[in-house]
Amino acid sequence: MNVASALNPAAPTGLTSSIYGVGAEGLDSDAFGMAQALIGSRQNVSPKRLIKPGPSATQLDALLSLAATAPDHGLLNPWRFIIVRAEQRHRLGEVFALALIDRDPGATLEQIESAREKAHRAPLLLVAVACLGAREPDTPSLERMVSMGAAIQNLLLGAHAMGYGAGLTSGQAMASPRLHRLCGLTEGEVPVCCVNIGTVTKRKASARLRPTPSEFASELPNESATGGV
Ligand SMILES: Cc1cc2nc3c(=O)[nH]c(=O)nc-3n(C[C@H](O)[C@H](O)[C@H](O)COP(=O)(O)O)c2cc1C
User: Fold this and answer.
1) How far apart are CA 182 and CA 119, in angstroms?
2) How far apart are alpha carbons 38 and 162 in whole angstroms?
3) Closest CA to 116 of 100, 129, 105, 132
4) Which residues share a beta bridge with 197?
5) Fewer CB within 10 A of the end CB, N or C, for the chain?
């Protein structure tokens, strides 16, 4: 059973209309319970464990529409996704291989082949690109990255709700000018990671231990502790 039907057994397989495309007034009374079940059960799935089928064209469109709901200070749309179709993956693989050779001319054939192979794993691969160049208003890069992260998380959660697995991959090839050229990036555009989506062959035996709220949330320190402002 995928997550969507686990959350709502009456719902058809795929995106549930109760969590997509409606205003808050349209959310059903257990929306928080559904959010907890969905968000709490997401986990990164290695592309090695993602096989066909991947999302259909309609599902991909729905996922990208979810990405578009990310918070966006200044309404800059400071990110974009580049879809690398199966028939183009060899070009991405070549970039991964050459980027490795650029930084390590002594890389073995096996290492080069392994780098190349990473482009061919998940049925759907998107390169997530942050747009940090001059824009009006000039929202700071940090804030644009927050928007990018939210867009990616929306994609991951949407894919999870559809019953797919999804995982992020990055690595040093992200910084290679070769990837920049392959993706046709313009001034100020930065590839951040790849979003890989597909059908899960095998999930991790157990979810990672998540930090508890007390580990990352605290009260404002007393003035006596900070020495005032
Ligand atoms: C920007 C970004 C890049 C990532 N790149 C990689 C990667 O190259 N390889 C990898 O195994 N995981 C990568 N991850 C996934 C994290 O390893 C994963 O989110 C983390 O282990 C926590 O697991 P969880 O997502 O299941 O909670 C990346 C995550 C982010 C946010």
Assistant:
1) 13
2) 10
3) 100
4) 124, 166
5) C
| Integer Cα distance of 211 and 206 in angstroms | 15
Q: Which of 201, 200, 205 has the alpha carbon at shortest distance from 166?
A: 200
In degrees, to the nearest 5, what angle opens at C-alpha 117 toward C-alphas 178 and 46?
105
Give CA–CA dist 50/110, Å, rounded. Answer: 22
Residue 56 has pLDDT above 50, yes or no: yes
Supply the residue whose CA is at minimum distance from atom 15 of ligand 1. Answer: 168
- 184 within 8 A of 80, measured Cβ to Cβ: no
* Domains delineated in the chain: 47-85+122-201 (3.40.109.10)
Query: Ligand 1 in contact with 169 (CB < 6 A)?
Result: yes
What's the rounded Cα separation, in Å, for the pair 165 and 53? 11
pLDDT at res. 11: 41
User: Considering the entire predicted model, what is its pTM?
Assistant: 0.90
For ligand 1, the distance from its centroid to the CA atom of residue 90, given in whole angstroms, is: 23
Query: 160 vs 20, 177, 188, CA distance in Å?
Result: 14, 32, 31
Does ligand 1 lie within 6 Å of residue 172's CB atom?
no
